[in-house]
Fold this protein.
Amino acid sequence: MDHKVKVIVIHDNPAYYIENKLEFIGSTFHRFLDGFRNIEVHLSAPIVGKIGTKHFDVDGCRVIPRIGYGKAIFFYLLFPFFSLYYLVHYLRLFRNYDLVWLVVPSSSVPLACAAVRFLGKAAFAYVVGDVLEVIKSSTRYPGPLRWLSLIAARWEYLIYRHMLKHLPAVLLDSRIIDRWRLSGSYRVGMTSLVEDREVQKPRLIRKGKVRILFVGRLAPEKGVDLLIRSLRYVKSFSYELIIAGDGPERTRLEEMVLVYGIKDHVRFEGFVERDRLRQLYCYSDIFVLPSRSEGTPKSLLEAMAYGLPVIASDVGRCREILDDGKRGLLVLPEDAMALASALEEVVRERNRETYERQRRAYSYIREHTKEKEAARLEEWMLTIIKGEKV
């Protein structure tokens, strides 16, 4: 190929045009895309707000805008309009690229897949999670909207299964192989945001007040309420809980902190920029991920990179990343007492088993940085473009 390979990514996480700046709120996937060195990767994303600009550059990523719809349910409520608009948009867009990268689940991906087949373009699916599991574990849509969202999720699930019979795929959760009964061509991959330069050697928990960190969206599926509840059972050490992130649950979580009488021990940071997030990882002693549902948790990988001991719910890909508890502690989801016990165990073993888990985590994360994951994926994508068997 006599030109630099160009790849377009189809992802439905919306970006918002706020105060003359484009921001991805609650989504960090675009930061992974600047890890590619030998191919040019652009991101097609729905934009809420300004749409007239041909492209934006966000955190080193070229973003190609399209009309946004906010929550996925609105895509289906206005399906006649969006189906026509997106199909025409994709037919025009894909002509300029060598490979189409379809992030699943994304409501517009079936339309993108139709455009791919019409144009005869090379493409692959990048399966970040199980759409049915995400909707079932979420309380985002109440009443009739929940039933509509479950119907839409079931519809998408059937389409994705059919797609994966014809497209090569990268799976971020190996459990999908059995759950979706896959028989096509696939490999297991990872979206890492950890840069080579960020990886730090393990460090011991400081003496005195233990600083506990959570990073993520404040939504029901993230289980921050369980983490707050678990602190009622912590008796053997003093602590400070830092909650970095924002979302629909924030008001309820702040009320919980007041009711439990631990306001002086909990700090809500809200949404934090990248530099501030690095400071918080360096400031903290323990990282906790109490999620009810997960895919590949990027914040867990980041915490491991900063040398922190980690505790995570046994959901999604956490067991695989933590090697059945050898790189960090696993707890049952929805179990606040188990979470409290894990916290006390980590502090109690701060110089022995905890450090051994951190050492194994350090070895693991060095091989799964953004640069290394991008290089592996880049090599695999080039075989697809060349038409080789993958």
